[in-house]
Amino acid sequence: MRIGLAADNGAWHKARLLAALTDLGAAPVLFSLAEVTVETGHDEPLRVPGFGGGLPDGVLLRTIAGGTFEATTMRLGALHALVAAGTVVWNGPTAIERSVDKAMTSLLLARRRIPTPETFVLSRRDAAAEVVAREAAPGRPLVLKPLFGSQGEGLQLIVRPEELPPEELVGRVYYLQRYVARRDAAWQDYRIFVCAGRAVAGMIREGDGWITNVHRGGRPLPWRPPARAAALAEEAAAAVGCGYTGVDLVEDGEGGFLVLEVNSMPAWSGLQQVTPVDIAREVAAGFLAAVRAGHPPRLVAAGGPP
Ligand SMILES: Nc1ncnc2c1ncn2[C@@H]1O[C@H](COP(=O)(O)OP(=O)(O)O)[C@@H](O)[C@H]1O
Ligand SMILES: [Mg+2]
Q1: Which of 6, 8, 122, 135 is exposed most, by the fewest CB atoms within 10 A?
Q2: Cα separations (Å) of 223 from 17, 42, 64, 146, 229?
Q3: What CATH code is assigned to 118-178?
Q4: How far apart, in whole angstroms, are the C-alpha atoms of residue 138 and residue 158?
Q5: Which SUPFAM superfamilies would you find in this protein's record (predicted)?
Q6: What number is the average pLDDT over the span 147-159?
Q7: What stretch of H or E contains 248?
Q8: How many CB atoms lie under 10 A from the CB of residue 48?
Q9: In the chain, what percentage of residues exceed pLDDT 70?
Q10: pLDDT at 304 exceeding the cut of 70
Q11: What pLDDT was estimated at residue 300?
C-alpha cells in the first residue's frame, strides 16, 4: 500500500504517527499539502510529492496549515480530488470542512438529536442582538465563539446586546451558544478521543477559568469515560464523519453530557500524559485498516490441480 502522511506542523505528533505507521508495517511518505500541485499535462493531473505520477492508496492527514482562503480552498480541493480518485483520506475533507465550521458541526449534531448546548448562528449584528436580548441575562450568558476558532481562543461571554462586537470583527458570522455552568465551581470538562468509531481514551481537563483548553493552561487529568459519555462521543464523531477525533464534552448538570465540539485535527499530547493508550498507534491502526478495507488485496486465483 502506498501511504502518505500529511502533517504540515506539529513535530511531536508527526514523529509519533510516523513511528506508529512504520511499526505497523507501512512505509509512509511524508509530504506537505503545500507541495501538492496540479499539472494538466499528465494522465493524472494531481501531483503528490513522493508518489511519482501515481496517487497514494491512503493519506493520513494530521493538520492543514493555516493559510489564505485561496491556499486552504486549493488544499481542500486536492483532498477532495484524492477521495474522488479512490484514496482513503483520514480525516477526509468533508469531515474537516464540517468540523472547522462550528455552525455546521452544531447543525449536524442537532439533526442527529445529539445533546449539545442550544446554539444560534446569525450573519447580521441586529439579528444577533435580538437573540442576545431574548436569550441572555445577567448570570445567564451566551458564549460567542469564532466560527473557525480553535484552542480556546477568541471566546467571549455575552450578556447584553451592546457587548456584541461589530460584524467585521467576527468575520460577519455570530456563533452564539448557551453557556453551560460547571458544578462545584470546578472548571472541569472532558475530552474523549474517538478512533474508527470507538472511544479509545478520555481525560478530564481542569482549567483556571471556564475555558479549559490545554493550550490555555488547562491541565489533563486521568478519566475513564462512563459508557454514556463514550457513546455520545462516538455518535458525534459519526455525525461529523471523522475517522479520528477529539470530542469536547461538558456535564449537563442532570447526570448527562453535552457535546461542545468535534475536532477533526485534534492534538493529543496532553491526553497522552494521562492515558496508557498509545493514541498515535490507535490512529495509525484505524487508518491502515480503513485503507485496506478501501483497497482489498486482489485475490490470486488458487489454481493448482483439482
Ligand atoms: N457553551 C459553553 N459553556 C461552557 N463552557 C464552554 C462552552 N463552549 C466552550 N466552553 C469552554 O471553552 C472551551 C473551548 O470551546 P470549544 O467550543 O471547544 O472551542 P475551541 O475550538 O476553541 O476548542 C471548551 O473546551 C470549554 O472549556
Ligand atoms: Mg475545543
Answers
A1: 135
A2: 24, 52, 29, 29, 11
A3: 3.30.1490.20
A4: 9
A5: Glutathione synthetase ATP-binding domain-like
A6: 93
A7: strand 244-251
A8: 24
A9: 96
A10: no
A11: 61
Which residue has the least CA distance to atom 11 on ligand 1? 211
Mutate to test the pocket of ligand 1, among 63, 211, 214, 215 (most ligand atoms within 8 A of CB): 211
Are the beta carbons of 173 and 147 closer than 8 angstroms? yes
pLDDT tens for residues 201-229? Answer: 999 999 999 999 888 889 999 999 999 99
SS3 178: strand
| H or E segment to which residue 119 belongs | strand 119-122
Domain residue ranges of the chain, discontinuous segments joined by +: 3-90, 93-115+182-265, 118-178
Mean pLDDT of the chain: 94
pTM score, two decimals? 0.94
Pocket probe for ligand 1: among 100, 144, 249, 260, the residue whose CB has the most ligand atoms within 8 Å is 260
What is the CATH class of 3-90?
alpha beta
Which residue, 161, 105, 154, 103, is CA-closest to 128?
161
Q: Which amino acid is at 272?
A: Q
Render pLDDT for 86-131 as a digit per residue (tens, 0 to 9). 999 999 999 999 999 999 999 999 999 999 999 999 999 999 999 9
Q: Which CATH superfamily is domain 93-115+182-265 in?
A: ATP-grasp fold, B domain (3.30.470.20)
